[in-house]
Structures are given as C-alpha cells and as structure tokens.
C-alpha cells in the first residue's frame, strides 16, 4: 500500500467534490475495489477523527479533513524499496569516490544482490539526465557535472510530489525525501516574491515554488563544498541585481553563503521561470528576440485560422513571445517549469488546450526545442486569457423582467438585476402588465415577480421562468444564476446532439478495445474503420499519432479524443471504441476512445463537438451510464442523447 496511491485516491475525490464509487476509483488506479478500501482506511488514519474520506452507499467522498490528510506527513519506512533507492541516490551524490556495493548492502541490512537490483533502478532513473553510473569492481560512482546532479535531485523531488499539488507543504515533503533542507522554504519564498516585486517584476507564483526548491538544493550542495564555479552567460545589470538579492536571502534563511557562480545561475532561473521579462523598469532588461517573435506570430496566425479563434492580435503575440523566449531558455537548459493547472486546463478547456498544442507544435519545429505538457499549459493560459472576453460575450443570455407597474418599482428591479447579474445576463425587455403574453416572450430567461401560469400538466411552463422578489435578494440572484447555467448547458449540449447525429460514422464502432495494442495501435484500429469509408487516409492516422505524442488527448478520467492537428479529412466523422475495463492511455486510463476526423469545411463544428463531448464524459455518472449500456453505435447514440437531454 503506497502513499502515492493513497494520495491519488484523495486527489480524485477532492477534484470531483462528489460521491465516487469504489469501482470507478479502482479503474482509475488499476487496482481492485478492495485495495481502494484499504487506501481509504490509511488516509483516514492520518487525521484525528478519521474524517478525510466519507464512506456511504454511493461510494466515497472527500470530507472535512481531506486537505489536512493530504498535507499530513507520514514517517517513511527506511526498509521500503523506495526509501532504500533514495538512500542509495543520496549516497552516490555525496561521495565523489563512489560507494562500495558490499559495504552499502551491509549498512542497509540487505543482500548484495538486492543492492545490485536497486542500482539497476538507479540506472533507469538516470535516463536522459546527462548522468551515468561508472563501475570499477565493487565500487560504483555517479559520473556527470554538478549542474546535472542538481537537476537530477530536482527531478526526483518533483516525482515525489502529489498529483497536481504544488503548494509549500507538498514541496517540503518532496524536499525531505531527498534530504534537502526544507524548514525555511516558506519564509524564503515569501521574501523572494516581495523582493522581486520591489525590483519591479511581476511574479509567476505557480513557478516560484520550483525555483525555491532549486535554491534549497543549491544551498545544500554548497554547504557540502560543491559550488558552481562557472558563470553561464555574460551577466547584465538585471541579472546581477537578482543575484544579489538571492545571495542575501539564501544566507539569511539557509545560513549558506553562495558564490558568484551559484548566485548568477539561480538568477538565470528566476529570470526564465518566475518573472515576466520586460515588466521591470530596468532599461538593461533583455529585449524580445525578433526570431522568436516572428515564430510566435506565425504559429498564432496559423492557429487562429485553423481553429477560427480571435487571438491574432499584436499585444497577445508580444506577451506570448516574451513567455516563449523564457520557454526556449528553459528547454535548452532542460530546466522545465511545472504547471499545477495542467490537468485542470486539459479537462475543463480542451479546445483551448488543443489550440495551445497547435501553437506549441509550430514553435517546437520553428525554434528546435521540445515543449512538454506543463509548458503547453502555460501557453493555454495565455490563449484562454485572450479568448475570455469573447467567450463571456458569447455566453451572455437575454432576459425579460415581468414586474407589474407601480411607481418606479420595475425600474428599481431592473437596476438591481443589472448590478448583480449584468456580467452574464442582459435585460432586453420589461413587461409591466399583470397578464403578459407569456408564450410571446422569446428571451432566454424570464424573471417574474408574479406567479406564471402552469402548463397543461400542472407544472411550470418552462425552466427558463424564474420567480423573484420585487426587491432582489441574494437567494433570487442564486436562483437566476442556476437557471442561467441550466440554459447555457442545454444550449451547448443541444448543439452537440445535433452535430453528433451527423458525424458518428455508421459501422465505426468497436465494443471491447484491444489494450495490448497501446494508444498508437488503438488509434490505428479505429482509423482503419474511417479509412475503409473513405473519410481519411493513412497520413491522417499518422498525423493523429504524432499529435498524441505532443500531448495526451485523455481529457477526462474516462475519455480520450485523438485527432490530427490539421483538418484534412474528406468529411467530419467520429469512430468510437468502448471498453468496460479501462485501458492505458499515456499516464491515464480511459474507457472510451473517440477518434475524430475533422474536415476543413466543418471547422465551425470543431469547438461544439470537441468541448461539449468532453463535458459529457467529464461527469462520472453520465460517463458510467454510457459505457455500461453501449453495446453498439445505435445504443451509444441513444444513451448519449439521453444524458444530453437530462
């Protein structure tokens, strides 16, 4: 029973915020429901009263003590393979001459064969790290530069962090696993952010904890006599100022004096990770690289054209280019920046994330650097920020107020509605009669101070009619907001139902995916169904697999939507694969794979199909119903329509 799996259970429940069955949790973790019960018991044991996870007939739900349980530290068992692995890595990092296999095995109270197996795991961890194990007889040493060793420590610490968590408590736990001094992390971060603000910079709080971890690693290594001597790049005035601040704060909080090499190296990390370049008034701040700006402008223009999104604006290109300039520095240094919102952005805003993937793909090719999921998520945040204003305008609903005239009562009510709900509802009409023609009111919502007539069945005429008080109350505002949400959802899902009926390809349905084929193989299997119908060719399938390698299309816990970045299909069509048991899809496990082939002529449908399809499968109960009851294409469409109609 591992802490990591316990934390994954807790993380899923906290994200869902509702009841989740043991079977669903077991599917997501790839374990049995019995194991889930043991994880829940272990999590509840972390907090007094055992109230982290509530159990009931509907399954499990995060309770009042969930956050405390996630933060609660668990004393590691030094005898576990993971703790032994960490001990071996620390020993290799600390010993210039390496370690003796037999002596180390005796010290850890394991056999030499067990230690040899652990060294094999260490070699696997070193893959892609510019480090290697060198052996001479029974002695093994870690070969590689000091900078590569620090990056390796940082990566191991990140691997220990909770899924999606990047707060200071999670950072402290991760640091402790690698024996990095963690006591002063919080105070150091607070002072660092304040000092950078004083220097005129805007700070990216999401990445600040990551830089703090690097500072702690540097302090630990310098204390052991392992300072960085080389200065990377010609230090300018801005870098020198930040280096000075870092040196002062590190000595104050960690009690370690950093040399020039370490100060300037950490200053470079700050400049490329947690501050916005150009936000400082310092005239010596580095400007924008014209080549990067041109690459960003080209990638944004292509994405705007392909996805029909309004992002091709000079101010947006400039801000994104400044971010990409830092991204390029990070990529060349293999110093990636984590984004704790990656999973949320992917599941909640799949279309925006896909626009970001398109931009990242163009930039990766143009600039010659790889761009990972966390970095794509930062690009998605830029794209989402630019689109938010137009998305808000599109989501605006119209409303008619029904308020029989008495002095200026209807005017006061309209003013109250505008003040409390004006960002989401536009009042386009006011009825002051006591007997309005209810059927003739065509706005999205009707806000009435009098009782509306009932329908023939004795029920309310429509869900869009909301009863409010003549003097608007907080409860009224909540009811209107809830009704508006229902209308928007019905509108979105109604469009989805109309589109899906057109696009589901006859015969392109598979019940029982072959998990042994892997994601690439399943894409090819579903793609073959569309190839047979003349919708796509082999190149489209290859492009879909290439897109999948850029960033996983597992947008929810149950659904993957593989697709190509270019809309080159003869017509838009969808091939569906359903599996009762989840299949591995990248780092996730899914039950439904929807291979979507989009044509150029159907670009306007992309957002409707893409986002709302993901929305349906983002609701666990709806997804479970569709998966369980779909035996063929017809029943899949029937269940999908039933879910959409509520």
What would your notes on this structure say?
- The structure is a single chain.
- This protein has helices spanning 3-16, 22-29, 33-44, 66-71, 81-94, 101-108, 112-125, 146-159, 168-177, 185-198, 205-223, 237-254, 260-273, 290-307, 314-332, 342-348, 350-367, 373-394, 409-421, 474-503, 518-532, 538-550, 603-617, 620-629, 633-645, and strands spanning 53-56, 59-62, 99-100, 132-136, 139-143, 397-402, 425-431, 445-448, 465-467, 504-511, 559-560, 568-585, 588-599.
- Residues 74-78, 162-166 and 278-284 have low confidence and may be disordered.
- A four-stranded parallel β-sheet has the order 7-6-8-9, with helices on one face. It has a four-stranded mixed β-sheet with strand order 10-12-13-11.
- It has six domains: 3-71, Winged helix-like DNA-binding domain superfamily/Winged helix DNA-binding domain (Arc Repressor Mutant, subunit A); 81-144, Winged helix-like DNA-binding domain superfamily/Winged helix DNA-binding domain (Arc Repressor Mutant, subunit A), CATH 1.10.10; 183-273; 290-372, no CATH class; 397-472; 495-645, Mannitol-specific EII, Chain A.
- The protein has 25 helices and 13 strands.
- By secondary structure, it is of the alpha/beta class.
CATH topology of the largest domain: Mannitol-specific EII, Chain A
Which class of secondary structure composition applies to the elements?
Answer: alpha/beta
* Number of DSSP helical runs: 25
| Overall average pLDDT | 82
């Amino acid at each position: 029973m591992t802490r990591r799996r316990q934390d994954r259970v807790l993380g899923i429940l906290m994200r869902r915020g509702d009841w989740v069955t043991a079977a669903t949790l077991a599917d997501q973790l790839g374990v049995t429901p019995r194991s889930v019960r043991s994880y829940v018991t272990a999590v509840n044991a972390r907090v007094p009263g055992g109230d982290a996870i509530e159990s009931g007939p509907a399954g499990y739900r995060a309770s009042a003590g969930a956050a405390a349980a996630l933060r609660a530290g668990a004393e590691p068992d030094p005898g576990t393979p993971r703790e032994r692995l960490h001990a071996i890595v620390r020993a290799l990092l600390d010993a210039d001459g390496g370690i003796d296999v037999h002596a180390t095995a005796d010290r850890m109270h394991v056999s030499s064969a067990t230690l040899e197996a652990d060294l094999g795991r260490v070699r696997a961890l070193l893959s892609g790290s510019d480090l290697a194990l060198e052996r001479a007889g029974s002695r093994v040493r870690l070969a590689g530069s000091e900078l590569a060793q620090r990056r390796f420590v940082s990566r191991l610490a990140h691997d220990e962090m909770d899924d999606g968590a990047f707060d200071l408590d999670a950072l402290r736990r991760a640091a402790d696993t690698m024996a990095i001094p963690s006591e002063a992390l919080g105070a150091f971060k607070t002072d660092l952010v304040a000092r950078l603000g004083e220097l005129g910079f805007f700070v990216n709080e999401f990445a600040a904890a990551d830089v703090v971890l690097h500072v702690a690693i540097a302090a630990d290594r310098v204390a052991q006599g392992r300072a960085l001597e080389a200065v990377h790049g010609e230090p300018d005035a801005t870098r020198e100022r930040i280096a000075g601040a870092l040196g002062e704060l590190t000595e104050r909080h960690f009690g370690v004096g950093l040399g020039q090499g370490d100060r300037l190296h950490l200053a470079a990390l700050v400049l490329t990770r947690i501050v916005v370049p150009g936000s400082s008034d310092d005239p010596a701040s580095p400007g924008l690289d014209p080549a990067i700006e041109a690459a960003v402008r080209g990638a944004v223009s292509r994405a705007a054209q392909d996805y029909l999104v309004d992002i091709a604006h000079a101010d947006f290109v400039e801000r994104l280019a400044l971010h990409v300039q830092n991204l390029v520095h990070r990529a060349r240094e293999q110093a990636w920046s984590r984004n704790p919102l990656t999973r949320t952005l992917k599941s909640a805003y799949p279309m925006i994330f896909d626009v970001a993937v398109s931009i990242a793909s163009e930039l990766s090719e143009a600039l010659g650097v790889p761009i990972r999921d966390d970095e794509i998520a930062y690009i998605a945040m830029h794209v989402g920020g630019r689109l938010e204003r137009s998305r808000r305008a599109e989501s605006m609903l119209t409303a008619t107020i029904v308020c029989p005239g008495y002095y200026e009562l209807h005017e006061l009510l309209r003013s109250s509605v505008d003040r409390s709900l004006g960002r989401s509802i536009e009042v386009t009409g006011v009825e002051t009669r006591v007997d309005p023609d209810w059927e003739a009111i065509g706005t999205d919502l009707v806000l009435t101070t009098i009782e509306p007539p009932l329908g023939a069945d004795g029920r309310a005429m429509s869900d869009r009619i909301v009863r409010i008080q003549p003097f608007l109350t907080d409860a009224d505002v909540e009811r209107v907001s809830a009704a508006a949400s229902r209308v928007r959802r019905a509108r979105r899902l109604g469009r989805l139902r109309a589109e899906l009926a057109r696009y589901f390809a006859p015969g392109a349905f598979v019940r029982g995916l072959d998990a042994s084929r892997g994601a690439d193989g399943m894409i090819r299997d579903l793609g073959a169904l569309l190839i047979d119908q003349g919708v796509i060719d082999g190149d489209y399938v290859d492009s879909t697999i290439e897109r999948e390698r850029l960033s996983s299309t597992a947008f929810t816990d149950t659904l993957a939507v593989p697709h190509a970045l270019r809309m080159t299909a003869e017509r838009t069509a969808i091939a569906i694969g359903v599996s009762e048991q989840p299949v591995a899809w990248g780092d996730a496990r899914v039950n439904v794979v929807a291979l979507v082939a989009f044509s150029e002529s159907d670009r306007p449908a992309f957002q409707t199909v893409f986002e709302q399809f993901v929305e349906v499968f983002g609701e666990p109960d709806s997804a479970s119903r569709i998966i369980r009851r779909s035996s063929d294409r017809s029943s899949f469409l029937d269940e999908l329509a039933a879910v959409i109609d509520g």
